[in-house]
């Protein structure tokens, strides 16, 4: 089974996850590439598609690519600035998953926190006023926490995600003879 890791990374967070995922894929029949609007849609049987999150979704070129895949196994992975929010991660997954055509087998998603550009923190600082002080300070606190991510625990989580998918595939193939 040929496995393809494609990712779109803006600040290096998703690239770190992509490399951890690639490392965890068993065997040698695998490839990794930064996503740049590839048009060769028959590169693999299993795809790990990585993205950075913007307003609860992935970039349009990643979503378009997902929509072009047919008859593949697809797993998603990504990073977003918000941390400690499994509900938000689930919402991101659902927002992106709808772009995957029904003839593909969806394998799940792994999403973790990632650091954001300093310009985001500056934007938050400039937003702060008497009315939103508490909310903006919480956003700044989240920003500061995100500076440490993806950390080793996040990378290990990504590797476990890969291991679980390959175990599931192996089990399916044994059951189907």
Question: What is this entry, summarized?
Answer:
The chain is built from six helices and five strands. The protein has 177 residues and is an alpha/beta fold. Strand 1 (3-7), helix 1 (13-24) and strand 2 (30-34) form a beta-alpha-beta unit.
Which helices and strands appear, and what pairs or packs with what?
Elements: E1 3-7, H1 13-24, E2 30-34, E3 46-52, H2 60-68, E4 73-80, H3 86-97, E5 105-113, H4 118-127, H5 133-146, H6 152-175
Parallel strand pairs: 1-2, 1-3, 3-4, 4-5
Helix pairs in contact: 1-6, 4-5
Relevant terms:
alpha/beta, 5 strands, 6 helices, 5-stranded parallel beta sheet, single chain, 177 residues
Structure commentary:
The chain is of the alpha/beta class and 177 residues long. Helix content is 46%, strand content 19%. It is built from 6 helices and 5 strands, in the order E-H-E-E-H-E-H-E-H-H-H. The protein has helices spanning 13-24, 60-68, 86-97, 118-127, 133-146, 152-175; strands spanning 3-7, 30-34, 46-52, 73-80, 105-113. It has a 5-stranded parallel β-sheet with strand order 2-1-3-4-5, sandwiched between helices. This is Flavodoxin family protein. Residues 5-163 form the Flavodoxin-like domain.
Q: Give the end-to-end Cα distance, rounded to a whole number of Å.
A: 16 Å
**Overall form:** elongated
SSE topology string? EHEEHEHEHHH
| Proportion of helical residues | 40-55%
- Residue runs with pLDDT of under 50 for 5 or more positions: none
């Amino acid at each position: 089974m040929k496995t393809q890791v494609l990712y779109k990374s803006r600040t290096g967070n998703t690239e770190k996850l992509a490399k951890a995922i690639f490392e965890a894929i068993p065997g040698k029949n695998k490839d990794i590439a930064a996503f740049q609007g590839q048009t060769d849609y028959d590169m693999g049987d299993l795809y790990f598609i990585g993205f950075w999150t913007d307003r609860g979704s992935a970039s349009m070129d990643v979503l378009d690519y997902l929509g072009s895949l047919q008859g593949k196994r697809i797993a998603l992975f990504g990073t977003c600035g918000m941390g400690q929010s499994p509900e938000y991660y689930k919402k991101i997954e659902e927002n992106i998953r709808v772009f995957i055509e029904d003839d593909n087998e969806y394998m799940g998603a792994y999403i973790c926190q990632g650091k954001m550009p300093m310009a985001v923190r500056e934007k938050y600082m400039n937003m702060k006023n008497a009315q939103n002080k508490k909310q903006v300070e919480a956003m700044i606190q989240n920003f500061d926490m995100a500076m440490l991510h993806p950390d080793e625990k996040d990378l290990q989580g990504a590797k476990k995600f890969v291991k679980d998918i390959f175990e599931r595939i192996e089990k399916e193939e044994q059951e189907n003879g």
